[in-house]
């Protein structure tokens, strides 16, 4: 079923994808924060540090606020974004600003934050510096929280970016790629598919019926990854969190 009022039960998820449905965005954010805190805590029991890669955009604010209050050993947690818009941190479009104002608060202010945005007027000019900064981060990522746009992008893997083939190439050794999607007002930087797809735990966090329609479209032709890059993540092991 496609159209207004689409429900999670209208979607046939492939085997191995678990879904959790929230009654509303606040309840979903709290369930996701509980689940992510458990994932980080489990990792910290067996490793000196744990990493958490999060998405920007409008969806994650209540999740960030709920997670920031969790009693974790935040000093041992590395936080980074999966993508960034090339704007100053003061800009309302800055994903870094969103993370600083909503996640890196309370106990979570002790986390180590890896900024993808570096001084420079274009991401393509500073990719080397970003790569060097990310060398301090242990891979694979432990916990990855992805969002999705209604064009099927996730992170800044946009279908209309000329750099997409390089960002999707699993044999590309880079951790980040500069992206110039035709549809977007700003340049972007994104973690590559190689880095993202190796994460130990991957969550796709969606809110709203429109996102269910997009998800249904993505599931309909799973092999056409370049047309809807989120398809690269719709595989066994994915945890889907959705609320109206
Ligand atoms: O531009 C972006 O969009 C996606 C989806 O954002 P939302 O506002 O629909 O939640 C996000 O996952 C990505 O990190 C962000 O840069």
Automatic annotation (TrEMBL):
One of its GO terms (biological process) is carbohydrate metabolic process. Keywords: Hydrolase. It catalyses: 6-phospho-D-glucono-1,5-lactone + H2O = 6-phospho-D-gluconate + H(+). Its EC number is 3.1.1.31. GO terms for molecular function: 6-phosphogluconolactonase activity. Pfam families: Glucosamine_iso (PF01182). Hydrolysis of 6-phosphogluconolactone to 6-phosphogluconate. PANTHER family: 6-PHOSPHOGLUCONOLACTONASE. Belongs to the glucosamine/galactosamine-6-phosphate isomerase family. 6-phosphogluconolactonase subfamily. This is 6-phosphogluconolactonase. The gene is pgl.
